[in-house]
Amino acid sequence: MASLFQRTFVQNFGFKLISLLLAVGLWFVVARDPIAEVEMKVPIEFHSLPENLEIDSASFTQAQIRVRGPERVIHRLETSDVRAEINLANIRPGERTFDLTAQQVHVPQDLEVVQIIPGQFQLSFDTRATRTVEVRARVTGTFAGGMRVAQVIADPANIMITGPRRRVEAVESATTDPVDVSGTMARASFLTQAYVPDPLIQVVHPTPVRVTVIMERSGAEKKTE
Fold this sequence. Notes:
By secondary structure, this protein is an alpha+beta fold. The protein has 5 helices and 17 strands. The strands form 4 sheets. Strands 2, 5, 8, 11, 12, 15 and 16 form a 7-stranded mixed β-sheet that branches.
């Protein structure tokens, strides 16, 4: 009996004591660590969208997520540690409602998701379209007395755009950033950019646009001469 007691409690007593103290210390730390909550906005990540489709909606790109867990973990939490993911595989053109639940939200270990806003959201999908549209230069400024714009040349004269088919087909032209021709008396060239106001439409291979403005005297000035 004494031998059994010795083997159980005395043998390697130092190591057993250290293990016991570590276990008690760990329990003490965990027991005293209060629970905290934090709320953060994170982007919704969309995965596996079919190559021939585009998202035809600019809303609900972020989610407001509240997580709960040990205060020590909450204090170290960063926005990049929380991810909301939606799988878009097998999506077809049209509207679709998605549930955003804790299963779609990834958080660090020891944390739990307690609230997600929105819990549901809708997205529209359309087939991808590409077409060429005209570039229209936007000319501004105060012209010298008796002068007017005779001709405006944009180079390139056309650009290619891509995006959801419905939106692409609604675009009449692309517009350049304003070009100020104040004080120009004959001919001047400016480098600028062309854009389409719709945020869901992209310019394919964007490149600077050279706008050349040619001025001439107005009709009254010509007759005076």
